[in-house]
Amino acid sequence: MPLFPFCLGEGLATPGGAKPNDLLAGTSCGEPMRLTFLGTAGSWPTKERSASAIALDTEKELVLLDCGEGTQRQFFQSSASFMRVRRVFLTHFHGDHFLGLPGLIQSMCLNNRTEPLDIYGPPDAEEMVGRALQMGYFTLRFPVTVHKLSAGTTVELDGYSVTTAAAIHPVPSLAYRVEEGPKRGRFDGGKARSLGIQGRDFAKLEAGDPVRVGTTVVNPSDVMGPPRSGRSVVYSGDTAPSEEVRRLAHRATVLIHEATVAQDLEAQANEWGHSSARQAAELANAAEVSTMFLTHFSARYKELEPLESEARILFPGSLAARDLLDHLIHQP
Ligand SMILES: [Zn+2]
Ligand SMILES: [Zn+2]
User: Fold this and answer.
1) HSE, side-chain direction, 13 A CA sphere, residue 80
2) Any residues with CB less than 8 A from the CB of 74 and at least 6 apart, and which?
3) Using an 8 Å Cβ cutoff, are 71 and 38 in contact?
4) Which of 27, 33, 98, 265 makes an SS bond possible with 261, Cβ 3.0 to 4.6 Å?
5) Residue 323: active-site member
């Protein structure tokens, strides 16, 4: 008999990438999305780098991408609060990507959390998370739901969606694309004025209501540009260069790609299901992303500039992520 309100989620995931039209409504606010790199180490943490974890504040809620050992302590040093984490997306069940979960959840209990937590991962998520949550003596006091995802699935959430692709790694592994719903077009104030709009009618039109000017009705569509696509963040997790990940990353605002090694160790890394900085850049270039962060660095690299330089040859928008680095993603 389960000792805690831990359950399995079915029915939230829908195949394909179609977004319901209602996502378009109410998504015009312009707060930046915030990425916080909590851990950028490869399999072994170092003094400078903690195990893999990335917090993404989507404007609606805080999402955690992987949860390596030490994640909760990294939260304390960052601008993000671990109590705000609403969902955790795990790429795979190598220890450096999920061993922070039991500690994080136990601390949430100690802080009297009552809000539910949803955890997503590859098909083995149910077994692995179930085991992790039964370690030690503690009572889970809030609902935790585990969702098993397969590659090519889209989960629709509050104002954003998450789509998966298969990574190339020795164990079941997923890459994730977190994407906002489409945004309303830009309001053209000059055009509104030329149509005779004045005073409070600007706000009315901007809110989506038609306005009467004399005998003429001005509709929002007369003064708004076409809908804009939302911001997107793609996280590769651990992977050798993958065509599926490239497709998932197509024109993403930010790609976070693993770069375990430099080019000279590429062949060996690929054998173990990892990529070089050069290969990450090649993929970023082919996927036409705007910015790429490299992460998951082998402990053999104390300095990251050589990896960053290697990537910039093929993709100038490459940056090596550092622990506790914040990156704001503004509305285009
Ligand atoms: Zn790893
Ligand atoms: Zn791994």
Assistant:
1) 31
2) 38, 39, 50, 53, 323, 324
3) yes
4) 265
5) no
The CB density around residue 61, as the number of other CB atoms within 10 Å, is: 15
**What single-letter DSSP state applies at residue 25?**
T
Give percent of the chain with pLDDT exceeding 70.
91
Residue 190 has a pLDDT of 87
Query: CB atoms < 10 A from the CB of 181, how many?
Result: 22
From 96, 118, 201, 238, active-site residue? 96
Q: How far is the CA of 70 from the centre of ligand 1 (A)?
A: 14
Both tokens of residue 33? 């999305």
Long-range CB contacts (< 8 A, 24+ apart) of 269-272?
269/240, 270/240, 270/241, 272/170
pLDDT tens-digit series, residues 200-232 = 888 888 888 899 988 889 888 888 888 888 999
> In this structure, what DSSP letter does residue 64 have?
E
Which ligand number lies closest to the CA of residue 169? Answer: 2
Q: Which residue has the higher pLDDT, 214 or 83?
A: 83
